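lol ok so funny story. i was supposed to be doing the assay writeup but got distracted and ended up predicting the structure for this chain instead. priorities right. anyway since i did it might as well share w the group, maybe its usefull for someone
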Amino acid sequence: ADWRLVFWTLCSVILPVLITLWCSFQRSRRQVLIRDIFRKSKHDWHYTDLFGQPSYCCVCAQHILQGAFCNCCGLRVSEGCLKKADQLFLCKEIMMRSSGGAHGSMPHHWIRGNVPLCSCCMVCKQQCGTQPKLCDYRCVWCQYTVHDECMMDCLKTEECTFGEFRDLIIPPYYLSTINQMRKDKRTNYEKVVPYCRKHWMPVIILANTRSGNNMGETLLGEFKILVFDLSKIAPAKALQLCTLLPCNSVRVLVCGGDGTVGWVLDAIDEMKIKGQERYIPQVAILPLGTGNDLSNTLGWGAGYAGEVPVEQILGNVMEADEIKLDRWKVQVTNKGYYNLRKPKVFTMNNYFSIGPDALMALNFHAHREKTPSLFSSRIINKAVYFFYGTKDCLVQECKDLNKKVELELDGERIELPNLEGIIVLNIGYWGGGCRLWEGMGDEPYPLARHDDGLLEVVGVHGSFHCAQIQVKLANPVRLGQAHTVRLILKSSKMPMQVDGEPWAQGPCTVTITHKTHALMLYHSGEQTDDEASS
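and the output, tada:
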């Protein structure tokens, strides 16, 4: 009896452990197989434990909770059908041969099931996707939908028109033709225009999945045209696609913060150096960062959180007007060291500052580098800025700045009042949406523009003064406008920043001069209001 008790006791302990180990082994083996399929597949598969809306497997037609979906073509499959779906269904092709070359055509690419609930059948004009099962078809290019009973043989071979945004899409057969022309060493790409359209303006989307509130990952699957993930490919490489498209026709939508926009504009400057100036694209912005001051200045808003449909964003890009943005060269030359150290050179789009706002940015960046996982929300980022701003109000680390620096505007020395910070502005907005040069708006002052070759220079009395300006309870100390700004830091280390990139700087000379212009797209708020009312 004792031996039987011992035996069953061991079984009750060991058996669950063995079952757990076996399940763990099977799960890890399954994950290895899934990763192997993802790596070899032409689909852009993403695994999910829970679909956010009712979804049905494109293979077995059963309801699925966990499985995989393709970010490119929208295919959804259960975990068990993944391998079979990868073999059965083709994804969207970036390059595809056509019998008519770049002026040819291609049929619809139909995917069955999981159509948007708001879509209508292109044949009978009735709502699609209303039944709780795998039903109806959607073209991955034009996004048209068709009922099962309305699908005819003629639709399967019908030419795809690429839908509402045909003027923004780069057809796969166009790139195939251009690729063949490059092999034949022909470069007259401008003669090859798809659809024979006069107003073709292809759009390339560059998304930074790490910006601000991490919405870039979601947007990769929302846009149904050519998208590059900047966490995987550098902007300079992605923008080489512009050289295969007609001159002065390409528009680039940058999904990210002001730092991402600056990164893309630097890559465009490299294109100018390579002699590719006629292929320079115009740049629009979808603000995903924390501050988004450049986006605000150009009419694209202070931040995007998914409240505007992707279709409206693309419509705004099509209707936006071209403008120029001044870009400035910031050269920081250290004092001493017998001039052996090379000067630091930055490119400025937004603003340069020394003082409390640069100190807040420096503390924020140091904290984010230690614990990057905490800074995944725009609200949390602004709360941390608020904390460091409140701390500086009490400590006042940058006081008596006027005794430590000298300021020259166009070669003329400026007598400084008692200040803690100096800010040199190129754009209208600063500090996450504050119109710093305007202040309260109760004093006459020359207008500030981002394309006039002039910089606006202001001073602040401290972090509390900055907060007062942001809520329009105070005016900045306007020091003047100039084409060239020179600032000499005579002693001690001070925090500085260029477009939100801070560092601690010792004695030096900072010289800001005009560098070049960037072609940007300006979105009028009136267009948004008209679209919302309609």
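Residues 527-534 have pLDDT under 50 and may be disordered. The CA atoms of residues 290 and 379 lie 8 Å apart.
back to the writeup now i swear
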